[in-house]
Automatic annotation (TrEMBL):
Keywords from the UniProt entry: Amino-acid biosynthesis, Aminotransferase, Branched-chain amino acid biosynthesis, Pyridoxal phosphate, Transferase
Taxonomy, superkingdom: Bacteria
Top EC class, one word: transferase
Record PTM N6-(pyridoxal phosphate)lysine, positions in chain: 202
Full protein name: Branched-chain-amino-acid aminotransferase
GO molecular function: branched-chain-amino-acid transaminase activity
Pfam families, alphabetized: Aminotran_4
Organism whose genome encodes this protein: Phycicoccus endophyticus
Pathway(s) served: Amino-acid biosynthesis; L-leucine biosynthesis; L-leucine from 3-methyl-2-oxobutanoate: step 4/4; Amino-acid biosynthesis; L-valine biosynthesis; L-valine from pyruvate: step 4/4; Amino-acid biosynthesis; L-isoleucine biosynthesis; L-isoleucine from 2-oxobutanoate: step 4/4
Keyword Disulfide bond: no
Any coiled-coil regions, as ranges: none
The UniProt record lists the keyword rRNA-binding: no
Family: Belongs to the class-IV pyridoxal-phosphate-dependent aminotransferase family.
Length: 363
C-alpha cells in the first residue's frame, strides 16, 4: 500500500520578509524551509506514519545505531521554478531508484519510487513559496531525502527501526566562485572507496572518508580533491561529491566507467545523453591520472569539468599533486564544451528548452 504524507502545518512559519531576504542570497545548504517530510519503518509494520511537519530537531537516543555504525543513505535533487510559475524536478525516479540501490547495500529497507515521489510532492506543495523565482540565475530548492537507522541498539545488525525524511533548502551556486574553475588536488594517501565497499552507494561514510583528502588539498591551495582507485592508485575515480568528465581533441567526452566504487551520478548519466545531442561521442572507460597530467600539456585533453546535482557543471582548472602541477585548460569560465553542456542542462531543468528526453516531473 502506498504512503500518504499527512500535513501537520507549522503554526509559526517564517515571515514573508525573512523568506524574501533568504531567497535573495540563499548560499548553499544553510537555510531550510518551514517543513520536512518523515516516515517510519519497523521490521514488524513496514513503512508507516508518513507526515509533513515542522522542520526542527530530531529526537534520537544516544544509542541510535546510525550514530555508531553509520547505517544511513541519502539523495540530492532540486525543484526548479519555470517562467510560468510551475515547479518541476529533474529525473526524480532516478534518485528514487538509486536510493533503493544504496539502501540494499546498507541493509536498509527500500522505499518504493511512488512513496519517494509522494514525499517530495507533499513537501514542495506546502513549502512552494520557498522555490526561488524563475530567472534568478542558478537558484533552486535543493531537496535532501535521507534514511537512517533510528533504532536504539548497539548490536551490529540491520536496524529494526528506520526513519526516512526529506528536508528542503533554497540553494544558489554550490561553489562561491560560480563558474570560476576549481583547482584539484590528487589524493595519493587517501582513497574514497575500495572494491566491494560502499563507493557506489550514496552513504555518509563515503563523504566522511573524502574529507581528509579534501583537507590535504585545501592545505595545498586547492578547492577539492580527486580520488584514485584504492588498489593501484592509478585510475581516476571521482571528487567525493562530484563526477569528472574530460573533453578530448577528437570530440570524445570521457568519464571514468562505473566500477562499483564510483557514484552513478544522475547528472553524470544525463550529460552522457546530452553529449550526443551536441555531436560529442560519450565514452565510459578507465582513465589513468597520468593521462590527465600529460593530456593537458600535449593538447589531447581540451577541457575538464566536474558535475553533480549541487554543483551542476563546474569547470576544473589546474591539477596539483605532491611535487607537481598540470596547467588549467579552463580559462576564466571553462571551455566551450563545458559551457554548452552546462547551458543545455540548465535550459532543460528551468524549462527553457523542450524536454525531449522526458526528464521533468511536475511537483
Ligand atoms: C549533490 O550533488 O546533490 C550531492 O549530494 C553532493 C554534495 C557535494 C552536495
Amino acid at each position: 500500500m502506498s504512503l500518504t504524507f499527512d500535513l501537520q502545518r507549522r503554526p509559526d512559519p517564517t515571515s514573508d520578509e525573512r523568506r524574501t531576504e533568504i531567497l535573495a542570497d540563499p548560499g548553499f545548504g544553510v537555510h531550510f524551509t518551514d517543513h520536512m517530510a518523515t516516515a517510519t519503518w519497523t521490521r514488524d509494520a513496514g513503512w508507516h506514519d508518513a507526515r509533513v511537519h515542522a522542520y526542527g530537531p530530531v529526537s534520537l537516543m544516544p544509542s541510535a545505531a546510525v550514530l555508531h555504525y553509520a547505517q544511513e543513505v541519502f539523495e540530492g535533487l532540486k525543484a526548479y521554478r519555470h517562467e510560468d510559475g510551475s515547479v518541476w524536478s529533474f529525473r526524480p525516479e532516478a534518485n528514487a531508484e538509486r536510493m533503493q540501490r544504496s539502501a540494499r547495500r546498507l541493509a536498509l529497507p527500500e522505499l518504493a519510487t511512488e512513496d519517494f515521489l509522494a514525499s517530495l510532492e507533499a513537501l514542495v506543495q506546502v513549502d512552494q513559496a520557498w522555490v526561488p523565482a524563475a530567472g534568478t540565475g542558478e537558484t533552486s530548492l535543493y531537496l535532501r531525502p535521507f534514511m537512517y537507522a533510528s533504532e536504539a541498539f548497539l548490536g551490529v545488525r540491520p536496524a529494526a527501526e528506520v526513519t526516512y525524511s526529506v528536508i528542503a533548502s533554497p540553494a544558489g551556486a554550490y561553489f562561491a566562485g560560480g563558474l570560476q574553475p576549481v583547482t584539484l588536488w590528487v589524493s595519493e594517501h587517501y582513497a574514497r572507496a575500495g572494491a566491494g565497499g560502499t563507493g557506489a552507494a550514496k552513504t555518509g561514510g563515503n563523504y566522511a572518508s573524502s574529507l581528509a583528502g579534501q583537507l590535504e588539498g585545501i592545505e595545498h591551495g586547492c578547492d577539492q580533491a580527486v580520488f584514485l582507485d584504492s588498489a593501484t592508485h592509478t585510475y581516476i575515480e571521482e571528487l567525493g561529491g562530484m563526477n569528472l568528465f574530460f573533453v578530448t581533441d577528437d570530440g570524445r567526452l570521457v568519464t571514468p566507467e562505473l566500477t562499483g566504487t564510483i557514484l552513478e551520478g544522475v547528472t553524470r548519466g544525463s550529460i552522457l545523453e546530452l553529449a550526443k545531442d551536441l555531436g560529442l561521442t560519450p565514452q565510459e572507460r578507465r582513465i589513468e591520472i597520468a593521462e590527465w597530467k600529460d593530456g593537458v600539456r600535449d593538447g589531447s585533453i581540451r577541457e575538464v569539468f566536474a558535475c553533480g546535482t549541487a554543483a551542476v557543471v563546474t569547470p576544473v582548472g589546474a591539477l596539483r599533486w605532491e611535487g607537481g602541477e598540470a596547467p588549467s585548460t579552463a580559462g576564466e569560465q571553462g571551455g566551450e564544451v563545458t559551457r554548452s553542456l552546462r547551458a543545455a542542462l540548465l535550459d532543460l531543468q528551468y524549462g527553457r528548452a523542450e524536454d525531449t528526453h522526458g526528464w521533468l516531473t511536475r511537483l
